[in-house]
Amino acid sequence: MLKRDTLELQYKDAQWGLKNYNKGLKKMADLCSIEERLTSYVSRYSFATHALFKNIPLAAISAMLGHSKLFTTQIYLRSLPSNVLDEYRKQLNCI
């Protein structure tokens, strides 16, 4: 995708690719009657959250996302949905 010579042109190519990727996500959302605005960020965040719920190790999730630092992945997973936190609280009350 980034085959042009200068960094400026490579950056423009990357931006163009991201824009087209997000357009495709918008089309899929429309076809599936998804009201939320889908973006590359939303898809990556959703993947990371789903992988965490499947008990995939954080280091593996980080590698799959192409993060060079584990901290970046932790940022993605910093805020879990409130219903998940509620479920964890229930589990603590049962101990």
List keywords for this structure.
single chain; 95 residues; 69% helix; mainly alpha; flat; 5 helices
What this model shows, in words?
- This protein is mostly helical and 95 residues long.
- It has one domain (7-93).
- 69% of the residues lie in helices and 0% in strands.
- It has helices spanning 7-31, 40-53, 58-65, 70-76, 82-93.
- The longest helix has 25 residues, at 7-31.
- The radius of gyration is 18 Å and the shape is flat.
- 4% of the residues are buried.
- The model has no long low-confidence stretch (mean pLDDT 87).
Summarize the structure.
The chain is mainly α.
The total beta strand count reads 0
- Residue-averaged pLDDT: 87
Question: In which range does the helix fraction lie?
Answer: 55-70%
Write down the Rg: 18 Å
Strand content: under 5%
Number of domains: 1
* Biggest beta-sheet profile: none
Overall geometric form: flat
Low-confidence segments: none
User: In angstroms, what separates the terminal alpha carbons?
Assistant: 53 Å
Counting copies of identical and different chains, the oligomeric state is: single chain
Count of separate DSSP helical elements? 5
Query: What is the string of helix and strand elements?
Result: HHHHH
Which structural class do the helices and strands define? mainly alpha
